[in-house]
C-alpha cells in the first residue's frame, strides 16, 4: 500500500486540548521485517494518552511531532513483514503499540509482531481494543508483582483496588476474583453498582471520609493493594495493611517512588512498589482467552467516530469514565 493515503487523528504540539486534535490524511505506514500492517476496526483511549499530549512524559514521549495518539487497537492484518510468522493477512488481531510512537487513532497501523495476538470471533473488535494496556497492567500488578495465582491455588488474599472505575481497576477486580481473593474496591458514587457487578465483595464511595481513608467496611487488613488512583500518602495506606502488606502503584509518582526507596532502605515488610508496564504477548493472549471463555470482559464506557475525536478526547481528559473509550473508523 506504499504511496496510498489514510485518515488519522494527530496533534502537532504538546500542552493543548481536544480542539488540537485534527482529522488529517497521511501516508499508510509500511511494515518493517518484524511488523504487521493492520486495518483498524477499533482503537481505545487510555489516561496516559492525555498525559502525553499535555507534555507530562516529555522528553521521553512523544518521540516526535506530529503525534498520532493511541496504543491499543484491534483489526485485520493486511500485510506482514518478511520475518513475521505468528500472523498472516486476513487474521483478526489485537495489538499494542509503543507509547513513544503511538499510531492507534488511524485507519491503518503498523505493530510489532511480537505484540500482536489473534482475536477470536467471540471477542469483538471494541472489546479487544480495550484490552492491551489496561488488561496487561492489571495482570502484571496482580501476578508478576503481587504473586497472586489466578487459578485459585494460592493462599487467600484480601485485596484493595483503588479507583476501580478506571479500566485497570475493572480488569483487576475480575482477575483478582479468579484468584479467589476478597476484593474491596473504591470508586465514584455513580459507579458503585457497576463495580459490584464486576465481582467486588465490598465497594466504598471514594468521595466519603471512609473512602478517602481506604478503610475496609468489614475491617479487613489488606495483603495487596492495587493502587489505580491519584497519589496517596503512605500514612493513609499504612494503618490498613496486613503485617506483610504491599501496595502496587500502577500510576507511579515521585512521592510513591520516594516511599518505595525509603521502605527498601528500612527493610520494612510493608512496602509501596511502583509498577511499570512490561508488555508481553503471552499475557495478552492469556487475557484474550479469558475473554473468549467469558471469564473477564472489557467494560466499554462509550464509542465515538474516529472522524470526530474531540468529544472522546475531552471525556478521556475528565477522568470520570467507567471503562474504556472506543473510537471506530
UniProtKB/TrEMBL annotation:
This is Enoyl reductase (ER) domain-containing protein. Residues 16-327 form the Enoyl reductase (ER) domain. The lineage of its organism: Eukaryota, Viridiplantae, Streptophyta, Embryophyta, Tracheophyta. GO terms for molecular function: oxidoreductase activity. InterPro entries: ADH-like_N, Chloroplast_QOR, ER, GroES-like_sf, NAD(P)-bd_dom_sf. PANTHER family: ZINC-TYPE ALCOHOL DEHYDROGENASE-LIKE PROTEIN C16A3.02C (PTHR44013:SF1). It comes from the Eukaryota. CDD domains: MDR1 (cd08267).
Amino acid at each position: 500500500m506504499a504511496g496510498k493515503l489514510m485518515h488519522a487523528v494527530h496533534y502537532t504540539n504538546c500542552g493543548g486540548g481536544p480542539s488540537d486534535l485534527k482529522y488529517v490524511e497521511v501516508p499508510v505506514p509500511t511494515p518493517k521485517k518484524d511488523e504487521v500492517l493492520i486495518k483498524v476496526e477499533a482503537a481505545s483511549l487510555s489516561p496516559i494518552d492525555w498525559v502525553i499530549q499535555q507534555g507530562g512524559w516529555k522528553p521521553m514521549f512523544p518521540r516526535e511531532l506530529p503525534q498520532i495518539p493511541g496504543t491499543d487497537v484491534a483489526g485485520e492484518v493486511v500485510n506482514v513483514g518478511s520475518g513475521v510468522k505468528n500472523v498472516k493477512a486476513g487474521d483478526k488481531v489485537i495489538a499494542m503499540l509503543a507509547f513513544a510512537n503511538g499510531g492507534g487513532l488511524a485507519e491503518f497501523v503498523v505493530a510489532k509482531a511480537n505484540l500482536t495476538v489473534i482475536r477470536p470471533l467471540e471477542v469483538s473488535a471494541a472489546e479487544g481494543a480495550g484490552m492491551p494496556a489496561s488488561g496487561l497492567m492489571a495482570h502484571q500488578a496482580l501476578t508478576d508483582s503481587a504473586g497472586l495465582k489466578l487459578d485459585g491455588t494460592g493462599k487467600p488474599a484480601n485485596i484493595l483496588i483503588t479507583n476501580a472505575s478506571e479500566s485497570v481497576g475493572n480488569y483487576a477486580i475480575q482477575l483478582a476474583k479468579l484468584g479467589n481473593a476478597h476484593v474491596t474496591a473504591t470508586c465514584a458514587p455513580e459507579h458503585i453498582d457497576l463495580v459490584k457487578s464486576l465481582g467486588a465483595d465490598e465497594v466504598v464511595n471514594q468521595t466519603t471520609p471512609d473512602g478517602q481513608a481506604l478503610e475496609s467496611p468489614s475491617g479487613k487488613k489488606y495483603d495487596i493493594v492495587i493502587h489505580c488512583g491519584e497519589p496517596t500518602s503512605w500514612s493513609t495506606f499504612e494503618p490498613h495493611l496486613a503485617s506483610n502488606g504491599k501496595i502496587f502503584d500502577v500510576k507511579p509518582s515521585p512521592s510513591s517512588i520516594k516511599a518505595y526507596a525509603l521502605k527498601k532502605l528500612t527493610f520494612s515488610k510493608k512496602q509501596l512498589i511502583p509498577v511499570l508496564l512490561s508488555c508481553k504477548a503471552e499475557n495478552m493472549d492469556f487475557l484474550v482467552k479469558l475473554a473468549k471463555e467469558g471469564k473477564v470482559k472489557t467494560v466499554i464506557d462509550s464509542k465515538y467516530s474516529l472522524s470526530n475525536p474531540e468529544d472522546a478526547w475531552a471525556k478521556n481528559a475528565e477522568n470520570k469514565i467507567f471503562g474504556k473509550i472506543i473510537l471506530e473508523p
